[in-house]
Design goal:
Elements: H1 3-25, E1 37-40, E2 43-46, H2 53-62, E3 72-74, H3 77-111, H4 115-122, H5 129-136, H6 144-156, H7 161-173, H8 176-183, H9 188-212
Antiparallel strand pairs: 1-2, 2-3
Helix pairs in contact: 1-9, 3-8, 5-7, 5-9, 6-7, 7-9
Length: about 220
């Protein structure tokens, strides 16, 4: 897309993410983080709703009980490797169907979907093109490097740059496999806020780019 678009994209997306993070931070949503387990130095430590081990252990020490805030279990290297492998396999099984769907959709967009149809759905004549693009990236589970050929094929088909960027942001932030993974960490309300924020950023940046770069690319 060229240096100018790249710099504008990085700057705009970064600023939008910072502003969104600051706004969400004022809502005090720490309680919507699920209990998770982290490992440190071969010890498995259970934490409660976003509190760190130091937070919970510090509170426990203040009350005169050094073991009350956390539950620690020594694990061997073999046990840690086994647990990591099981977790990776579980995530792979969860995401495999969506990977297959994403590859199929990407292939269709790249080689089978007529340019006229893309123009009708995501072209400048459709006022809902940018929101549609931000949501359309959800079922496509590829890395950002994998998104770029798809984005290039969309621009070659005449789709406005802002609409393409909204698609890239949506695909990177709210792909279904990503949401599955985040669902293990976030409660549904926080997950919904996250997804809404990503879509809003995608739409905002997309509309801004369509306005600023209209006729320049």
């Amino acid at each position: 897309f060229g240096t100018g678009v790249t710099v504008a994209y990085v700057t705009t997306a970064l600023l939008a993410a910072i502003v969104a993070g600051l706004i969400i931070g004022t809502f005090e949503l720490d309680g919507y983080i699920k209990d998770v387990r982290i490992t440190a130095g071969g010890r498995e430590i259970a934490t409660d709703g976003g509190a760190t081990p130091s937070d919970t252990s510090g509170a426990a020490d203040a009350g005169g009980c050094s073991e009350c805030g956390t539950t620690a279990t020594n694990r061997t290297h073999k046990e840690r490797v086994t647990a990591a492998g099981e977790g990776a396999l579980s995530f792979f099984r969860d995401t495999l169907p969506y990977i297959a769907v994403g590859i199929a959709i990407g292939a269709l967009i790249h080689g089978a979907v007529p340019a006229e149809l893309l123009q009708r759905i995501a072209g400048p004549g459709n006022p809902l093109a940018t929101p549609i693009a931000a949501l359309a990236g959800a079922p496509i589970y590829v890395s950002i490097s994998g998104m770029l050929p798809i984005a290039h094929s969309l621009t070659e088909a005449g789709i406005p740059i802002g609409t393409v960027i909204a698609f890239v942001i949506g695909g990177a932030g709210i792909s279904i496999p990503n949401l599955i993974l985040l669902n293990k960490l976030f409660e549904r309300r926080l997950l919904a806020i996250y997804a809404t924020t990503v879509v809003t950023i995608g739409i905002t940046v997309g509309v801004l780019f369509n306005t600023v770069f209209a006729g320049l690319l």
